[in-house]
Amino acid sequence: MFSFRLFHKQNQGNSEFTASTLLQNQPQRSYGITSPVSLATPKDLDCIHTQKLVEALKPFGVFEDQQELNHRLVVLDKLSKLVKEWIMELGESKNLPPSAIASVGGKIFTFGSYKLGVHTKGADIDAVCVAPKHVERSDFFQSFFDKLKHQKQIKNLRAVEDAYVPVVKFEFDGIEIDLVFARVSMPTVSANLDLGDDSCLRSLDIRCVRSLNGCRVTDEILRLVPNKENFRLALRAIKLWAKRRGIYSNVLGFLGGVSWAMLVAKTCQLYPNALASVLVNKFFLVFSKWDWPNPVFLKQPGESDLNLPVWDPRVNPSDRYHVMPIITPAYPHQNSTYNVSASTRAVMVEEFKHGLAVTNEILQGKSDWSKLFEPLNFFQKYKHYIVLTASASTEGQHLEWVGLVESKIRVLVGNLERNEFITIAHVKPQSFPGNQELHNG
């Protein structure tokens, strides 16, 4: 595979894109597996196309203003204080010495789209509560959950303890937060704790490893892209495109946010000097022609003495059946796309080809960026389709129903694929409002 790194910088104080402001004379830094496809530097026309891309994205609410960003920081600061307060109270209840209670710490780390810097207006924040060794997972779901209950600014509080990565979900002063938990094998959690160090995984149970994995993967993705600003703008465009075309859903067998981020990061490594407009076009070029199921790696998987389970088809027979592997860059390396089926991959590859044709037109001046974000007309595309219905009486029940139904739909797709008379099973990951009278009945 390909992996390379070169630096150039976007002028933060100017919304206009010019080649002179986007490049710096910095030494090349090589990463990973092979050399880049092209080291071509931006042309003035690339800057114009990139500025037009920004303008096309704005109406879709993909950018937050500074006031909204500051509000998120305030909410995260309040949540961090709550966590530290709870950990100290827990230390007192467990009879820790006063000197230990004063220094136990505890910290909130963010990950996902917020940490990558590509979250949209109204998007939730993914975060992990990292606690010292005297704090048990049961404490998080009991005493901390109770503490959250008594906060006036917190609404829609619910716990999902039996999830693959157990999580507490809530709305804090208007910001939705998904908070997972990890207990490290240390007596204190310092303010400068480095989650990128593999040693922090030592002696942890697998649920804590999974909870930390989100942060470790997000940080590693950012470390492995040549230019963060170009990466972020290209990723915003690709995520919006994927949602508009109905192929953004990990649970339904398409790709989730981290998988899209890794594919865009890979494109950045292959074209380290390209601006976002070119990166979007090259993204479609690369992955419409990718020889699946050859895996996508951002870096060479490293060795570790921690003996945690990693994606390796040479060792794990089940890994050999993954049809579109995209491997996370942080240990323990995992396939982020194990839900992808033959049908959903075929749908995505078709969309990559369509995206390539559209962006070729855009860069040739024959179309504008709005064409890329036109939604798929699903019901004109096919003659035969199935409508599934489900309802719930409360918001909490609705969320449980959504998760249950989506997971069952993925199983249904797998069953349909095995029918010799069915060529492809294409799921539209969108819900529709039902008939209120039927619901009441």
UniProtKB/TrEMBL annotation:
Residues 230-374 form the Poly(A) polymerase central domain. Residues 32-225 form the Poly(A) polymerase nucleotidyltransferase domain. Keywords: ATP-binding, Magnesium, Metal-binding, mRNA processing, Nucleotide-binding, Nucleus, Transferase. One of its GO terms (molecular function) is RNA binding. Its EC number is 2.7.7.19. Mg(2+) 2 binds at D124, D126, D178. Binds 2 magnesium ions. Also active with manganese. It catalyses: RNA(n) + ATP = RNA(n)-3'-adenine ribonucleotide + diphosphate. Mg(2+) 1 binds at D124, D126. It comes from the Eukaryota. Its cofactor is Mn(2+); Mg(2+). ATP binds at F111, G112, S113, T120, D124, I125, D126, D178, K239, Y248, G257, V258. GO terms for biological process: mRNA processing; RNA 3'-end processing. One of its GO terms (cellular component) is nucleus. InterPro entries: NT_sf (IPR043519), NuclTrfase_I-like_C (IPR011068), PolA_pol_cen_dom (IPR007012), PolA_pol_NTPase (IPR048840), PolA_pol_RNA-bd_dom (IPR007010), PolyA_polymerase (IPR014492). It is found in: Nucleus. The keyword Amino-acid biosynthesis does not apply. The keyword Zinc does not apply. Polymerase that creates the 3'-poly(A) tail of mRNA's. This is Poly(A) polymerase. It comes from Bubo bubo.
